[in-house]
């Protein structure tokens, strides 16, 4: 009897919420390249916002140095696990750029406040200083590519925000989640939902405990406009779609500053 | 107690015409359909002037003029744009007494505020941004940042000329052209500013002023050839604007309402804190988006502080805005007075205890005595809604953590105040407050170099400082 070929063990690609990998509470799945992936629901989106909100104060309150260390650790883990992305069509140069992007953002953690804040020379006997602070919980419709995905997550989290990411490419995104889960990133800082973003994004756009909405990956102008309208209900900060985005280009500061608030503190001077 | 003899500032420094047109493309013209509205002195209900009400065709014409002017204004060397702005700043300084009296007449604010706060800040704002016009490459927005195009700007009635300065100065410095709509109840200082633009020989179309009510503003916001919308006003209208701009690609900044907590700890110097509480809520009749309208006082000193506060409130002089001794002027409009009156009645109905000092209010005009409510809980509407008047809600707390939680328990996030002698506490509490401006041991201070703007539903974007340039750069 001929030796039979070994039957491979297939992986289910589950959601990433609060540092854990749950299935969708709806029990729904869809098939990607022969594997099952979770089809996120409204309830999953709400759970992810809860996890992101719970994680946000501690993440924002960590020292900038510490956040930088965590982000750099992500780059280390990504380098070590780079081959895991190959089956999903991520080429070597995109992988290089993705890892280098994490390293670039890791370094920003303790520099952005000096670049965007500082003392203001007011005309009076006052100490006056402006500092950037995270806006809070950011809901993101990510672009499909790995480099695009990292290019929306990293600027949000390095600045102390926590994110709920709607990822169109389930396998790439959940493989990245597995990297994050083994990289000292506190649970809830990054939450990733897979499935149809057109179904889940409207709930996040209207969610009262979401502070900002990044629509970078939204492909349809009409859906983007609808989400932006929904975001107006609680005056969320909105990053509009970038259908022609070149993620290999220098991102500049805007991806970070768009998710930062400026706080200005005054105090009188006197003896 | 001493009494004060009347000390009125002379009206003769300002000449108000009986009617004003729209300022479009460097000229004053009536509106296309001939519609006008009246602007009144809220202290006397006397009609000051008739002002053109801009319809959609007038707004079209203003936006067209701004678009034509944009070609040359945006390509003018920054150093030349700077000099126009310096000229404007200087003319404002030289005409500041006239403009201060005008502002007090049209708005109702005390002359000591329009003279000592509004006008100096207006001139300073133009001076500040004038200097940026030829230095934009150093501002941190890339080596060669570009203007956006035509900015549609809508401003409120509480600081008419100052809000105009906050909008127009950075827009022009960065090479944009503007169509600005002043508030319906306070159009005059913007029209005088139009005259200043002519005096400065600013090229026609760079600044256009369209007067009118909400419809005029809506035409401007929805105009397809406007690239940028900047609005200061209520959160409710801000939401509408954000909805209507959605999907158009227009850039948007919003400076909206507030319900600021002014937190007084038990180690605060009481007399200084009382002055800060008074300027926090009674400055400009409380018509201030960043007003310290919720007093959070540590329980152990509440009684002592309230005693001092009431004594201080009893010395506030309410009356003629042109009197140099007046502390609290007129409420800006009958509609605003009605809103303040209604919310105050609700405050009493909901069980809070209302107190005002005895004060004689004039027979004519719109007036509201300075008022405090004690025994207010977080559920009371007067603790949640922006009253935009001289009404203070007093709540108490026991621990710093409770103070922070109560301060942040609002959809707004514009400003906050902290009063304590302990430096480490100031820094810790300031870090935890979700508000764009935190005044520690002071309140209601403004400066062109200091970024101003809100968290959460108080809007987005910053005005003032280097940060204020970003709203007008691509």
UniProtKB/TrEMBL annotation, chain A:
Origin: domain of life: Bacteria
Entry keywords, A to Z: Oxidoreductase
Keyword Oxidoreductase found: yes
GO molecular function, one term: oxidoreductase activity
Pfam family for this entry, one: Aldedh
Cross-referenced InterPro entries: Ald_DH/histidinol_DH (IPR016161), Ald_DH_N (IPR016162), Aldehyde_DH_dom (IPR015590)
Name of the protein described by the UniProt record: Aldehyde dehydrogenase family protein
Automatic annotation (TrEMBL), chain B:
InterPro entries, A to Z: Ald_DH/histidinol_DH (IPR016161), Ald_DH_C (IPR016163), Ald_DH_CS_GLU (IPR029510), Ald_DH_N (IPR016162), Aldehyde_DH_dom (IPR015590)
Catalytic site: 255
MF term (GO), any: oxidoreductase activity, acting on the aldehyde or oxo group of donors, NAD or NADP as acceptor
Ranges where the Aldehyde dehydrogenase domain occurs: 32-473
Highest taxon above the source species: Bacteria
Pfam family, one: Aldedh
Keywords: Oxidoreductase
Family: Belongs to the aldehyde dehydrogenase family.
Protein name (record): Aldehyde dehydrogenase (Acceptor)
Upper classification of the organism: Bacteria, Bacillati, Actinomycetota, Actinomycetes, Micromonosporales
């Amino acid at each position: 009897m001929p030796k039979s070929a070994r039957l491979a063990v297939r992986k289910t690609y589950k959601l990433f919420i609060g540092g854990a990998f749950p299935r969708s509470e709806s029990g729904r799945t869809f098939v990607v390249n022969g594997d099952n992936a979770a089809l996120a629901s409204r309830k999953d989106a709400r759970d992810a916002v809860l996890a992101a909100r719970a994680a946000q104060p501690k993440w924002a309150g960590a020292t900038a140095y510490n956040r930088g260390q965590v982000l750099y650790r992500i780059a280390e883990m990504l380098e070590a696990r780079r081959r895991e992305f190959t089956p999903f069509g991520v080429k070597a140069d995109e992988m290089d750029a993705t890892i280098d992007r994490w390293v670039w953002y890791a370094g920003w953690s303790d520099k952005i406040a000096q670049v965007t804040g500082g003392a203001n020379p007011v005309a009076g006997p006052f100490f006056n200083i402006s500092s950037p602070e995270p806006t809070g919980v950011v809901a993101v419709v990510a672009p499909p590519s790995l480099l695009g995905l990292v290019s929306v997550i990293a600027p949000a989290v390095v600045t102390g925000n926590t994110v709920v990411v709607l990822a169109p490419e389930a396998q790439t995104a959940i493989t990245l989640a597995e990297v994050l889960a083994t990289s000292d990133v506190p649970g809830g800082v990054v939450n990733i939902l897979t499935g149809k973003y057109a179904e889940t994004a409207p709930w996040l756009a209207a969610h009262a405990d979401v502070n900002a909405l990044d629509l970078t990956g939204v492909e349809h102008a009409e859906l983007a406009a609808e989400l932006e309208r929904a975001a107006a209900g609680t005056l969320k900060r909105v990053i509009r779609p970038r259908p022609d985005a070149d993620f290999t280009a220098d991102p500049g500061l805007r991806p970070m500053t768009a998710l930062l608030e400026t706080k200005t503190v005054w105090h009188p001077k006197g003896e | 107690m001493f009494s004060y003899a009347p000390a009125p500032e002379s009206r003769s420094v300002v000449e108000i015409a009986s009617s004003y047109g729209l300022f479009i493309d460097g000229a004053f013209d009536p509106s296309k359909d001939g519609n006008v509205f009246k602007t009144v002195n809220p202290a006397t209900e006397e009609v000051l002037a008739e002002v053109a009400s801009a319809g959609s065709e007038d707004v079209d014409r203003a936006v067209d003029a701004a678009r034509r002017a944009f070609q040359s204004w945006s390509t003018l060397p920054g150093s030349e744009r700077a000099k126009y702005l310096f000229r404007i700043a200087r003319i404002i300084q030289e005409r500041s007494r006239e403009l201060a009296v005008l502002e007090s007449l049209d708005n109702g604010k005390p002359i000591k505020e329009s003279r000592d706060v509004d006008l100096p800040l207006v001139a300073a704002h133009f001076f500040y941004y004038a200097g940026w016009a030829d230095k934009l490459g150093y501002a941190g927005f890339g080596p060669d940042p570009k203007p956006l195009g035509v900015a549609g700007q809508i401003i409120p009635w509480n600081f008419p000329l100052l809000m105009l300065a906050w909008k127009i100065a950075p827009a022009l410095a960065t090479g944009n052209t503007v169509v600005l709509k002043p508030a319906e109840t306070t159009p005059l200082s913007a029209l005088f500013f139009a005259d200043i633009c002519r005096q400065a020989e600013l090229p026609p179309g760079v600044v256009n002023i369209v007067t009118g009510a909400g419809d005029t503003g809506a035409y401007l916001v929805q105009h397809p050839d406007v690239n940028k919308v900047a609005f200061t006003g209520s959160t409710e209208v801000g939401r509408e604007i954000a909805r209507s701009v959605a999907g158009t690609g227009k850039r948007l900044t919003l400076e909206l309402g507030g319900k600021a907590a002014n937190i007084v700890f038990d180690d605060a110097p009481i007399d200084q804190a009382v002055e800060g509480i008074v300027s926090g809520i009674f400055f400009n009749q409380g018509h201030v988006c960043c007003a310290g309208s919720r007093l959070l006082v540590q329980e152990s000193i509440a009684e002592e502080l309230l005693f001092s506060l009431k004594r201080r409130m009893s010395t506030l002089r309410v009356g003629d805005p042109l009197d140099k001794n007046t502390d609290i002027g007129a409420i800006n409009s009958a509609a605003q007075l009605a809103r303040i009156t209604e919310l105050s009645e609700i405050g009493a109905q909901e069980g809070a205890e209302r107190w005002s000092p005895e004060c004689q209010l004039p027979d004519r005009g719109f007036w509201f005595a300075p008022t405090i409510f004690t025994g207010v809980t977080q559920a009371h509407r007067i603790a949640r809604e922006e009253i935009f008047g001289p009404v203070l809600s007093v709540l108490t707390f026991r621990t710093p953590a409770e103070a922070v939680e109560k301060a942040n328990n609002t959809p707004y996030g514009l400003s906050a105040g902290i009063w304590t002698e302990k430096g480490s506490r100031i820094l810790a509490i300031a870090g935890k407050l979700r508000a764009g401006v935190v005044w520690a041991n002071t309140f209601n201070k403004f400066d062109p170099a200091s970024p101003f703007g809100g968290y959460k539903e108080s809007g987005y974007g910053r005005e003032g400082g280097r940060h204020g340039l970003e709203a007008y750069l691509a």
